[in-house]
Amino acid sequence: MTQLALRGVPLDRARVLRLLQDYGVYAGVLALLLANVLLTPHFVSAENFRTQAVQVAPVIIVALGMALAIGSEGVDLSVGSVMALSTSLISLYLGYGPVAAILVAVLGGMLVGLANGSLIAFIGVQPIVATLALMVACRGLANVFLPQLKDVRDPTMASLGSGSVLGIPYLVLIAVALALLVAFTVKRTTFGRQLLAIGDSRPAAQLAGLPVRRVLVVVYVVSGALAAIAGVLATARLTASDPTSLGTLMELSAITAVVVGGTPLSGGRVRIGGTVAGAVLIQLLTATLIKHDLPPSWTQIAQAVVIVAAVYAARERGRR
Fold this sequence. Notes:
CATH topology: ABC transporter involved in vitamin B12 uptake, BtuC
Strand content: under 5%
Order of helices and strands: HHHHHEHEEHHHHEHHH
Mean pLDDT: 89
Structural class: mainly alpha
Number of strands: 4
Shape: globular
CATH class: Mainly Alpha
CATH architecture: Orthogonal Bundle
Low-confidence stretches: 1-6
Radius of gyration: 20 Å
Helix content: over 70%
Strand order of the largest sheet: 1-4
């Protein structure tokens, strides 16, 4: 009887850890919502929820691409700079019409992703090194194209940034649509299965005859495109192009959302729902601290604690 009881202890602990890893991010979101409902004045209002949703939408979009990169056992540090590059391209090409400017901005992000993917897949550069180089280069290029902040005066861009359908902002609808599309791609397509196999073991994927190089290039092209879309939406919301500050530290926010959402840094698994919830959790945490007049440094500390807890949980799972 004692032996059974003793054996039951680690089983219970394992089950708790597994539940925490799988559903902890959702529990965290619910806990923060409940705490704000009870303790934060004027939190429960349509305007506040709209503001929070609009602010988190670009983070979700960037984090989707980051989840794919991390799922392939890589990382994309250039996403924030791609946002800056896209906002510069919007201003440069807006004279040709908003549709043309948006297409050029997204194409610019895809070209950056193509450069990242080619360095990683064909030359063998480590993802952190390749994307770090492009992060620096893209930010510099964005400032060359547009040395200072510039207002974006265009009715289509203004409507994209502030418009809504049935009270739901366009930015939120786009983020949700992209999340569903990426989730479907990961779960239901051959490309998604190949991506996970490559992230789990690249040598084994090569021996199995999978198109490793092509998949890696596509992953980073998609990540660049999503970052560019986020840059376009952020520009539309702000009605201004600011390549100096737009996208700053976005790569860290995206990595945080992905890791907290349950996607392991070792690759082989992608949790899109968890990534979205992770982005919402970080946004709620930031908003909570701001509404209670705590300095921004506390937000960074809180994010660091959340990241460490998520990585620790993943480490425990790896041990078992």
